[in-house]
Amino acid sequence: MKIKNFEAYQAVISTGSTQGAANMLGISQSAVSRRLSQLEQELDLELFYREGSRLVPSRVSGLVSPHIADVLERMHILLDAAAELREGHHAQSLLRIAVPPGISRRIIPQIVAKFLKIQPHARFEILHGTYEVIRKMLEDKQAEVGFLRLPLTEDYLSNASVIQARSVCAIAPSHPLAQRDAIRPEDLKNEPLVLLGWKRAPRHDLDLVFSAHSLRPNIRLEAHSVSSACGFAAEGIGIAIVNSLLIQDCLDLDVVKRPFFPDVPHYFAFAYPAKPEISDVARQFVDFATGELQQLASSA
Asked: How far apart are CA 75 and CA 6, in angstroms?
């Protein structure tokens, strides 16, 4: 199968007509029609039908369209990698890193910028998703490396060195507790709280801390990301208890952070499929980024 036929199909889907596809690809309208016919013959499927002068995608076309788009993307990645090899570079194909939104706004861009000073030929695609989505991306090979909360439960995944973060409180500057150097459970008695991670290990540990001090947390709001929890804290809705790593992506919000004692630790790591081995540039990035994140988490 010819990649040009896939490109013609994708251009017609994107523009809605063979003339639009011809303009996009810089070829004649008849060349577009010819490539579509060749693709239909190769797949033995009717991808379009005519309504007057209009070319309309068939029902089957809608079913195969995502697969064609995926093939095109992978082919372009292959061609780019081949071009890199011809130019004498290492086989530094596109490095796909999946991260949660909570570190994608400030933390990861800063790390990538530093890494590119060491490896200027590296190329990235940064994917976003929840930890569950990142696991799925790794399983489906949509990402080579993913940032995950530990522990890992998947046998097919390995992880790099552990990144440990502590628990901190995000507090509106006007709140009286913002004057404290540290926050303890008894300080939070009857205080409205913004908590996250319901049914996850760190939340269970936090609940145990409150229970050990004979306190029942006054949960005003359940959040599902550190950034949103800090946002609610900045508005005075409650004191957020989050981890010292992901709060670094929220430093532009109007909150102060204070360590929470006794500490409830959080563990993270970059994960990747155990087999096959990740590329050299991926390994270099994982080691570099892990060191940066360990330093960031310990300095908070």
From this structure: 10
Helix H or strand E segment including 185: none
Instruction: Note whether 43 and 9 are same-domain residues.
Output: yes
Question: How far apart are the C-alpha atoms of 152 and 229, rounded to whole Å?
Answer: 25
Instruction: Specify if 7 maps to a domain.
Output: yes
Q: What's the angle, vertex CA 85, arms to CA 83 and CA 86, rounded to 5?
A: 65
* Alpha helices per DSSP H over the chain: 3-15, 18-25, 29-43, 59-86, 107-118, 131-139, 201-212, 226-234, 280-299
Residues 134 and 55 reside in one and the same domain: no
Q: Are residues 63 and 102 in the same domain?
A: no
Domain membership of residue 73 (yes or no) is no
Same domain, 288 and 151: yes
Q: Which domain holds residue 235?
A: 167-264
> What one-character-per-residue DSSP string does 44-109 give?
TS--EEEETTEEEE-HHHHHHHHHHHHHHHHHHHHHHHHHHHHTT--S---EEEEE-GGGTTTHHH
Query: Tell me: the pLDDT tens digits for 250-282?
Result: 989 999 999 999 999 999 999 999 888 888 889
Residue 172 and residue 260 in one domain = yes
Is residue 165 within 8 A of residue 155, CB to CB? The reply is: no
Domain count, the chain: 3
What DSSP element (H or E) covers 159? strand 157-159
The rounded Cα 1 to chain-centroid distance in angstroms is 33
**What pLDDT, in 10s, does the model give residues 114-160?**
999 999 988 899 999 999 999 999 998 889 999 999 999 888 899 99
Q: Rounded to two decimals, what is the model's pTM?
A: 0.71
Same domain, 215 and 282: no
Pairing of strands 163-165, 218-223: unpaired
pLDDT of residue 84: 66
